[in-house]
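To whoever is on call:

I kicked off a structure prediction for a single chain this morning and the downstream step that reads the tokens threw a length-mismatch warning. I double-checked the sequence; it's 298 residues and nothing unusual in it as far as I can see. Pasting both halves so you can look.
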Amino acid sequence: MKQIRIQLFFLFFIVASFGFSQTNPVIDAFPKGTILYGNIRYNNDTIPKHLLDIYLPENTKGKVPLVILIHGGGWLSNDKYADIGYMNKTVAEIVSNGYALASIDYRFSTQAVFPAQMQDCNRAISYLYDNADQYGFDKKRFALMGFSAGGHLASMVGLSKNNDIAAFFMAGTSKLFSFKAVVDFYGPTELILFPENNNEKSPEGLLIGAAPLSRPDLAKAASPVTYVDKDDPPFLIIHGEKDQLVSTKHSQLLSAWLSVFGVQNELFILKDAPHFGEMFDSDEVRHKVMNFLTQRLN
């Protein structure tokens, strides 16, 4: 199982990274006329991972909702283009329906351990909120969407926001933003659930700087289920039935905790689907995602 997990992880890295040396290699996935603001430095520094892209629909009238995308890659690979590469129909439909989309980068676990990734995500979202008027966003209609490790971070950001965890924010970061919805694609939700929870060199071990079993306090602090409460935003949780990297138990556990606290959520297990790939860009999944966003953002 360990060998299979490592092989699949690197397959994910290779597929999602193909062609990323180009300048915005995914812009053709978006509708013609999409307005791109690329490689914005959201922390006003020169750190390569402190960048985001904004995709705006053409000829908008009034303020538009914003979907914030957080990429996957085991917290140690890929970039803000990665998941768009195999979710091109979904992102195209998001923009064609009049929503803006922002895709953000964050520091890898090999560069800085948790909670650096939370600090980066919150800083990027703070930038988007503080500059909403410039780009035409509706500050009251923000949603999160993340894939794998990005699903974990999207869930963490969405669930912990109302807990006001000081360690999750850089100094000077605005905390005025909130979220109407979270879409979590196969994100880890409880680090102790991983089969390599005693391995400090596993992706989750590298994230927190220790084996989860040896530092359950750190594992708990980095697990989305820790922050579930009755005031959290609605969730759509999507997971592949045959995921060999992140067990469906992660999504089942998050859905159960949300239900315990009375938070609206839907868990959808995609039959025969692996950890990632074009199966998640199918009509069935895409319609479910768009219906959820329409209900929450319109």
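Update from on-call: the warning came from a stale cache, not from the record. Cleared it. Sanity check on the structure: The chain has nine helices and eight strands.
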